[in-house]
Each structure stands twice: as C-alpha cells, then as structure tokens.
Amino acid sequence: MASCQACELAQQRNRVVPGEGAEDADLLFIGEAPGFNEDQQGRPFVGAAGAFLDDLLSSIGLSRSEVYIANVIKCRPPGNRDPLPGEIEACRPWLNQQIEIIRPKVIVTLGRFSLARYFTNETIGKVHGKPRKIGDIVCFPMYHPAAALHQGSLRKVIEEDMLRLPELLKNLEPRACTPDDGGQQLALL
After folding, report:
1. Which domains does the chain carry?
2. N or C: which end of the chain has fewer CB within 10 A?
C-alpha cells in the first residue's frame, strides 16, 4: 500500500494511512479519508474526531487495540476535501482486502462515503443506528465522529448509536473460522 500510485493522491501524501487495530476484530470502523494529522502520523483518527471515537469506544468497554479502524481512501485529499469517485475506486481493492482478512462481525460505517459503499441512495439521517445484513456482514451506519464536533446536537445521537453495538455483537453468531486460515496477517504495507 505504501507504494500505491493508483491515483493522484499518491503524489501529495506524506504517509499512507492503512488503518490499525486488531486483525481479528469483531468491529471494523470505516471512516472517509485521512486528515492532516493522520497524513502526518500514518494513523487513522488521531485528531479531534479520533479523540471522540476513543471516548465512544471506551463507553462500550473497548479500546482501539480491540477493533480495527480504517478509511475508504488511504491518502489525504488536498485541503481535506471530500474523496473523489476515482480515488474511492482506486482504494477499493485495499479496503476489500482488509475486510477479507479481518472478517469482522460488524462493519461500522462512519460518515456518508463509507455509508455509500453499503447503503446506496440512503441518507445517514434516515439509516444511522439501524443495522442491516449485507452478504455475510452486518453493517451498522453511524454519523462520522467529526459531525459532533461541527454540529453539537449530533453528539448524543452518535453516543446512543455506539451504545447499541454491544447488544448487536452479542446477538450475532460467532465468526466462522476455517482450519486452513494459515494465520493470514494484515500485511498491506
């Protein structure tokens, strides 16, 4: 991933931001794109939105090391603009591979770009906090943590949606593991 040149973002990035966390996580959080701090550190959600995400995880008894956090695209768009369709498509294989390796029980979409991957023609305001099974994975849409920083009234909504995750996980069947997994590692760098 560090040598990827599939789109123009590769020319401007400081660091690729592949994602981080447990490679066998039950929860995979997918944000939109790295911001300034993420581009500097090569880690997802390290700014103010990341601090709020850490608080949200703590509210359900989890830490970053127990979940996996990634983004739809792996390089920062200039000026933190929205990801372009071609950039999303260029990074799709990377995210697909992450999902395939991690095999989460639940994918939590954070924001509209990760929402669009699973909930086409839906709006976050209508579907947030409502899980939906898509293929073998349960998808759980949420507002992006940054939304609470820009619109304080969403903070409580986001906190309430996060509190639904433990019960959702508890009611899902255990992940099917095949004996020939071979201990596949998340070696995307």
Report:
1. 9-170 (3.40.470.10)
2. C
Name the band, by pLDDT with cuts 50, 70 and 90, for residue 189: very low
Three-class SS of the chain: CCCCCCCCHHHHCCCCCCCEECCCCCEEEEECCCCHHHHHHCCCCCCHHHHHHHHHHHHCCCCHHHCEEEECCCCCCHHHCCCCHHHHHHHHHHHHHHHHHHCCCEEEEECHHHHHHHCCCCCHHHHCCCCEEECCEEEEEECCHHHHHHCCCHHHHHHHHHHCHHHHHHCCCCCCCCCCCCCCCCCCC
The residue written with tokens 């401007």 in the block is: 12
Indicate the pTM of the whole model: 0.90
